[in-house]
Amino acid sequence: MLSTNKLFNLYTEVKDWLEATNYPSLQKKFEPIQKQFDDKKNNLDITVMMYGVYNAGKSTLINALLGQEKAEMNDVPTTSVIQEYKWKNFIIYDTPGIDAPKDHEAITKEHLLSVDGVVFVVNPSGAIEEMDTLVKLVDLLAAHKRVFLVLNEKHEQSIENFLYLKNSVRERIQSIASQRGLHDILKDIPILRINAKRALSGHLRQEPAFLAASGYIEFEAELNKFLLSISDQDVIKRLSSALQHFLLDCQMDIQSVNNDELLTHYQNLVQKIEIQYFESKRRLMNSIIQNQQNIYQKSKAAMLRDPNQSESVINSVYEQSTQQMTEMIAEEAKYLSLCFQNEIAEIEHLVLQSQVQRAALNPVIELEDNATDNLEASDKSLDLDAVTLSYQSAAKMIKPDHIIKGLQVVKDWVPSLMTGIGAKTMEKWAQTVVGKWIPYVGTTLTVLTSLRDLFSDDKGDKLMMQQAEQQNQARERFHQQVEDSAHDFADQFAQKITSYIQENFDPWVKNLTDKIKETIVLEDSCKTLHQEQLFTLTHLITKVDAK
Q1: CB 148 within 8 Å of CB 189
Q2: 422 or 352, which is more confident?
C-alpha cells in the first residue's frame, strides 16, 4: 500500500511542477488541493466535521459530547467562523450548516475538503426525507469521505418507526449512489439516533439514567469506534483522489490553450488513454470485489454444509471467477485499443500531410522481441487479435502453490485423529492438492473435517467427548475456522488477480502509450513537455488509487 510519505512526495512534485510553469488558472485550481495537504501535514490527528441542516442540532450534539455548553447554540447561524473542539484524541469542527447563508456555506464547503470524516446530523422529522440532503450525503461518499449519520430526535419516536426510517433512508441512499456508480456503501455508513438536548441535560444535571435514556451511551461508543476506524489509508485515498482529479483537469486546461493541430490531436490521444485506462481499472477492481465476495459466500456455505464435499464446489467457483476476470481483462485491453484507433489514424494523416520525414513514422505500433507488449505491426495500426495473447495464460499464472508442510501442520495439530498417516500418505494427499485452484484447500478442509468430527453424531466420537462444553468449544472453533478460511480464499483470489493486473495490464497500457509517443516527433514545445510530465504524474496517482 502507498505510504503517507510517498503520497506527499507526489504532491510536492505536482507543486514544484506548478511553480516551474506559468498557468495562473491551474495555480488557482490547486489552492484547495494545497489546503487539504497542508492541513493534514500540520495536523495529523483525525478530524471530523459536524455537518447538516443548520437547525439539526449540531452544536447541541457537540456540547453533549463535551459534557458542557461550549459550542454556541442558535436556531439561526450568527457567524461564518469554523469552531474547533477537542474530543478524546480527535478534532471536531462545528459549522453553520447546509442551508446557512451563501457566504457561510461557502466557508463550510471549503473546510469540508480537509476533514477525514463527517458526522452528518439530520432531524428525522423532515430533513432526512429531503432529496437534497441525501444527495449531499452521497456527494461526501463520492469524495471518499467517511460518513456517520445521526438522527437527532427532538421528539422521541418508537423503535419501530426508527427502524422503518433507517431502512427507508438506506434504500434512498442506495438509489442515489447507484446512479453515481457507487455500490456496497451501506456498510460504511453507521446510522445512530440520539436526543442531543436530553443528552446534554443529562451531562449538566449529572443524571446517568437521563443520559442513558437519550441514547447517548450507544452513540458515544459507536462514534468512537467510527473515528478509530478511519485509517491512514482512508486519508491517503481521499488525498490521492483529489490530486488525481486535479491532474486530469490540468491536462484538459493545457490542451485548451494549445492551437497546434497536431499537438492537440496528440494530447487528445494521451488524455483519452489515461481517462479510459482509469475507467478500465475501476471496472476491473469493482469486478474483483464482486468475485471476492462471491468466493467468500459460496466457499463458506459449502464448508458449512460438508467440508468433505466442499472442495469441488470451491474449486469450481474459483475457476469460474478466474475465467471471468481473465476474459474481462482481455476485453478491457481490446476496448482500450479500439478507443485509440480514430485518434491514431488522424495523427498519421496529419503527419503525412505535413510531410514530417522521421524514422519514427514507420509503423505506429511496432512489435519488439518482448511479446508481453501484445502489440503487433500491421500497416501502421493496432492488431486487435494480438491484444489478448498475454491474457489467455492468466488462469495458469494465478494458480497458487500447494505444499506438503500444510499437512504436517494438521498432523501435529490433531494427532489423535491423524494416527496412521505417514509420510507416504501425506505425499499422496499433497499430490491431490498440488495444481488445484484454491491455496491450501486440502489442508483447510482436512482441519475443518477434523473439527466438525469433534461434535458429530458418531458414537465413537461421542465417547471421546464426555463434556457438553467440549462439544460447544469444538463447534465454535469449526465455525470460526470456516469464516477464516472463506475470507482467506476470497482474499487470495483478489491478491492474485490484482497482482496479475499490476504486472501485466498496467505495463501493457504503459508500453502502448510509450510506443505511440515514439511515433510522434513534435517540435520542442514547452506545452508538450508539460503534458508529458502531467501524464507521468497522473499515471502514478492512478496506480495509487487503484490499489
Answers
A1: yes
A2: 352
150 strand-pairing partners: 121, 192
CA-CA-CA-CA torsion for 64, 66, 71, 73, nearest 10 degrees?
10
- Compute φ and ψ for 75, nearest 5 degrees: -70, -25
Say whether 319 sits in a helix, a strand or coil.
helix
Return the amino acid letter for 387.
V
Instruction: Please write the tens of the pLDDT for every residue from 439-478.
Output: 445 555 555 555 555 555 554 545 544 555 666 666 777 7
Most confidently predicted of 8-12, 142-146, 197-201, 356-360: 197-201
DSSP 195-253: -HHHHHHHHHHT-HHHHHHTTHHHHHHHHHHHHHH--HHHHHHHHHHHHHHHHHHHHHH
Percentage of the chain lying above the pLDDT 90 cut = 7
Query: Grid coordinates representing 540?
Result: 502514478
pLDDT (average), residues 295-308:
84
Contact 226, 150 (CB under 8 A): no
List the 47-52 sheet strands across, edge first.
83-87, 90-94, 47-52, 117-122, 146-152, 191-194
Domain boundaries, the chain: 31-244, 259-363+394-545
Per-residue pLDDT reduced to its tens digit, 328-363: 887 887 777 676 666 666 655 555 544 333 332 233
The contacts of residue 501 (CB under 8 Å, 6+ apart) are: 281, 284, 329
Contact 14, 37 (CB under 8 A): no
Nearest to 152 by CA among 199, 211, 112: 199
**Architecture of the domain defined by 259-363+394-545:** Up-down Bundle (1.20)
CATH entry 3.90.1170.20 includes domain 31-244: no
In angstroms, the CA 251 to CA 244 distance is 11
Domains 31-244 and 259-363+394-545 share a fold: no
Dump the DSSP string for 504-539: IIHHHHHHHHHHHHHH------HHHHHHHHHHHHHH
Comparing CA positions, the residue from 126, 121, 124 lying closest to residue 136 is 121
Provide the whole-model pTM.
Answer: 0.48
With a cut of 70, say whether residue 137 has pLDDT above it. yes
Is the confidence at residue 491, as pLDDT, over 80?
Answer: yes
CA–CA distance, 376 with 364 (Å, rounded to integer): 10
| H helices present in 113-158, as ranges | 131-142
Terminal alpha carbon distance of the chain: 7
Residue 49's CB is within 10 A of a number of other CB atoms, namely 24
Strands 90-94 and 83-87: antiparallel
Q: Burial level of 210, CB count in 10 A (0-12/13-18/19+)?
A: middle
State whether the Cα torsion 29-33-36-40 is positive or negative.
negative
| Cα 501 from Cα 281, distance rounded (Å) | 9
